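Problem: given the chain below (105 residues), write out its structure.
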Amino acid sequence: MQPFEVGFDIASSANMQQLDAALGLTVTCNLLGLPAAVVPVGVAHGLPQAVQIIGARYQEMACLDAAEVIEASLGTVTPSTQSRLIKRKLPDLRSLNTLQVSFFL
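Solution.
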């Protein structure tokens, strides 16, 4: 999926419905009160890639711990490091052998 252009959501009601569908996981987590964290992991086809971690209610620290493990394993992804990451193949996160990460795989 390509990123939405600025003003996409106000151009038409069909565009707004498409945006609502694309943000379904984010809205669902918020409505259910589930903690979530998103960790950037690299760039693929010129677009940033990330892992979304969703935890059980009141398990904010588990999400943050998992995010910390992923970031420590992959390094911090920032706009200045993205050009270097474009050439790097994204790792298989299932190879991370930690309790904190294994709950969402």
